[in-house]
Design brief:
Blueprint: H1 2-24, H2 29-45, H3 51-71, H4 82-98, H5 101-118, H6 125-149
Helix pairs in contact: 1-2, 2-3, 2-4, 3-4, 3-5, 4-5, 4-6, 5-6
Length: 168
């Protein structure tokens, strides 16, 4: 169910971003960003099948898009687009949550590196969104990993009074 909702958000975001780029940048400027968003979003939706491969592919596609947008000399909108940043953040958080420690750390470092490279284009809403998304991934991923792995973290005993249905 989570993937269905996420896919819906991705689709709406890509359509909205495409519409906004058509109105502001004009021409075919929207094609590159939409292709990147669709690719990274699709990889994120398939993340449970090949955890490491899809995470590395998402990082590689996003990194390539960021570099291409930086060297395009403002002929292309800045990357990662909002949906690409969201998809990458979800993917990094999921990798941190589910992968072995070394692989998770590698994906996290890659996500931070890609986000850091976006700042070479200067401050903008795109860099801010990408940074906030990555910070959220770096907080949510370990928190969810701890909840999954810490003994008693998901038990009703740790939830205290509110979990006791006899008192309600």
């Amino acid at each position: 169910m989570f993937n269905a909702g996420l896919g819906f958000v991705f689709a709406l975001g890509i359509v909205f971003t495409t519409f906004m780029l058509m109105g502001s940048w004009g021409g075919a400027s929207w094609v590159f960003g939409s292709a990147v968003s669709i690719t990274v979003g699709g990889l994120t939706l398939m993340r449970e099948r090949q955890k490491v491969l899809t995470a590395v592919a998402s990082l590689a596609v996003t990194a390539l898009a960021v570099v291409v947008s930086l060297i395009s000399d403002e002929r292309l909108p800045q990357e990662p687009a909002p949906i690409t940043a969201l998809a990458l953040s979800v993917h990094v958080a999921y990798a941190i949550r589910t992968l072995p420690t070394r692989s998770a750390a590698g994906i996290a470092v890659g996500g931070v590196a890609v986000t850091g490279v976006t700042w070479f284009g200067g401050w903008s809403g795109v860099t801010s969104l990408a940074t906030m998304g990555m910070v959220a991934a770096l907080v949510a991923g370990p928190a969810l990993r701890c909840l999954d792995r810490c003994p008693g973290a998901n038990s009703s005993a740790s939830q205290g009074f509110w979990a006791d249905s006899r008192r309600s």
